[in-house]
Design brief:
328 residues; alpha+beta; Structural Genomics Hypothetical 15.5 Kd Protein In mrcA-pckA Intergenic Region, Chain A; Pseudouridine synthase; four-stranded antiparallel sheet; 8 helices; globular
């Protein structure tokens, strides 16, 4: 029998203004795109926990209780095509790569049921293969909502499977640009990443986490910020953001892992992280592909301020050469 599709768990803490509400009513208030009846069904099948324990739909949580919700796909939660204008970097019969703008969510999830890349992809590619994940057709990797840059999707079942294998085997070379607080050290950072033990929506450096390796090369800096090229060798959730925070040099504009004082004083406007370059063998033809996403205006303005207008591209080339010499 097919199991219902589930999202990653969502964690919330009961606020003072929610005191006295039944659990189903409280959740319907927190997630207005889902009905109270929907949450009752999740509660009945054990997909809602309070402080790690199953609950009944008439239960009234206390202030500060942690509620864990594992959303499941039902007819109430479906995905439909929505025409969107993509900046296409590469497309053939097998794959498509776009330059994702900041603010675009990759696939439907709690709080973002429509207006995602998947909605636009379904309108652009009418015959996407079913891959067992009905809300993520064609998706083989993700970028955070406010991260810009190269995003690849598969248009066929063969391409989907082979792209997943390429990412898993680290055969896709990734380079990101980031504007960081201060000046991070050049070289590798190898620090395991897992779920934060207290802030359950966040990731953190934890001893029992999964291996996470990144290479950092600073291109330019001043007394407040740096422009860095980062090559993640692994693909952990929020890897670059967590690693730079761990080093004490978070990305400017990062509202989760960043420096609030620097974010306020420098007002970057968004997370200044850009998926700049991907290099890999085409999953179906074997052709060597090197895709590059044009650097968005906000990050390019920072580059000019840090590097000078004529030094941006030479700095990028020099940093890539250094990374290739120092990494496997």
């Amino acid at each position: 029998m097919n199991q219902p599709f589930s999202f990653d768990p969502d964690f919330i803490s009961v606020a003072p203004e929610e005191e006295g509400f039944r659990i189903d009513k409280l959740l319907a208030g927190r997630f207005p795109h889902c009905s109270r009846t929907y949450f009752q069904s999740l509660i009945e099948n054990g997909s809602v926990l309070i402080n790690g324990q199953p609950v009944k739909k008439r239960e009234i949580p206390k202030i500060g209780d942690e509620i864990e919700v594992c959303f499941q796909l039902t007819p109430e939660l479906s995905v439909s095509p929505e025409p969107m204008a993509f900046e296409i970097l590469f497309e053939d019969d097998h794959i498509i790569a776009i330059n994702k703008p900041p603010g675009l969510v990759v696939h439907p999830a709690p709080g973002h049921w429509t207006g995602t890349f998947v909605n636009g992809l379904l309108a652009h590619c009418r015959n996407l293969p079913q891959t067992g994940d009905p809300l993520r057709p064609g998706i083989v990797h993700r970028l955070d909502k406010d991260t810009s840059g190269i995003l690849i999707a598969a248009k066929t079942r063969e391409a989907h499977q082979k792209l997943i294998e390429l990412f898993a085997s680290r055969k896709i070379e990734k380079h990101y640009l980031a504007v960081c607080c201060g000046r991070p050290p050049n070289g590798p950072i190898n620090a395991p990443i897992g779920r934060h033990p207290v802030k359950r929506k966040e990731m953190a450096i934890v001893p029992e986490g999964k291996e996470a390796l990144s290479y950092i090369q600073v291109l330019a800096f001043n007394d407040k910020a740096s422009l860095a090229l980062i090559r993640p060798m692994t693909g952990r959730t929020h890897q670059i953001r967590v690693h730079l925070k761990h080093l004490g040099h978070p990305i400017l504009g990062d509202e989760v892992y960043g420096n609030p004082r620097m974010n306020q004083s420098l007002a970057p406007g968004r997370l200044l992280l850009h998926a700049y370059r991907l290099t890999f063998d085409h999953p179906c033809t074997g052709e060597k592909l090197q895709l590059m996403a044009p650097i968005p205006t906000d990050i390019r303005n920072w580059m000019k301020g840090l590097c000078g207008p004529s030094l941006c591209e030479p700095a990028l080339s020099r940093a890539e050469d250094l990374q290739k010499a120092g990494s496997p």
